[in-house]
Amino acid sequence: MPATKIKTQSFLANLPLFRELGADEIDRIAAGTLERHAERGTVVASKGAPVDGLHVVVYGQVKLALSTPQGDEKVVEVIGPGFSFGEALMFLGKPYIVTATALSDSLLLFVRKETVLDEIERDPTFARRMLAGLSRKLHNLMSDLEAVTLKSGRERVIGYLMRQEGGAEGDAPYSVALPVSKAIVASRLNLTPEHFSRILHELVTAGLIEVEGRAIRILDARRLRELP
Hints:
The chain is of the alpha+beta class. The chain contains 9 helices and 11 strands. The chain has helices spanning about 5-15, 25-30, 85-90, 115-120, 125-150, 155-165, 180-190, 195-205, 220-225, and strands spanning about 35-40, 45, 55-60, 60-65, 75-80, 85, 100, 105-110, 175, 210, 215-220. Strands 1-8-3-6 form a 4-stranded antiparallel beta sheet. Strands 2-7-4-5 form a 4-stranded antiparallel beta sheet. β4 and β5 (about 75-80) form a beta hairpin. α1 crosses α2 (about 25-30), α4 crosses α5 and α7 (about 180-190) packs across α8. The longest helix has 27 residues, at about 125-150.
């Protein structure tokens, strides 16, 4: 058995979507899966292109973004290792409504639509897991919409920082690292880069955080959470 297939099967078997499947089921999905290497800046999927499967990120990061005719960009989501994109549109039979671009050198697994549909026919439990995954994405999307429409820019930035990996329990100081550039974080939070930087500066001046590049140290988590 080729080494790449073993790697594909091992990775698929550890994804939440496929974790409960047996070895034979994983073999069938792996047989309908392709590896796609994407260098930084590569367009993985273009807006308007047909969606004939779903992508899973093995390593690297993929940016999903909308662009205006003027060339402005709105980052909708950043997909990291272990997460996927394209499922909902795949089921709807609709083309991509965003452009997916590799933010760093990335390895993706592309699971063909026919493979997913065949497995749903064989196993209703698999269909329920797909529905659960899509429901989680919808919930996250609604949370993002609430933040953009009902929360101030500062509240959005604070909420984002508090959700990053590296947070410690309680109020002890801790450090986080932004997973992407500040410009992309700003777009994800529906802020201009200048506004995002200004908010960070205000929090630094207030003695709540320290910033060095992408590294941000939370000095007073309690005060940060309670900030109006």
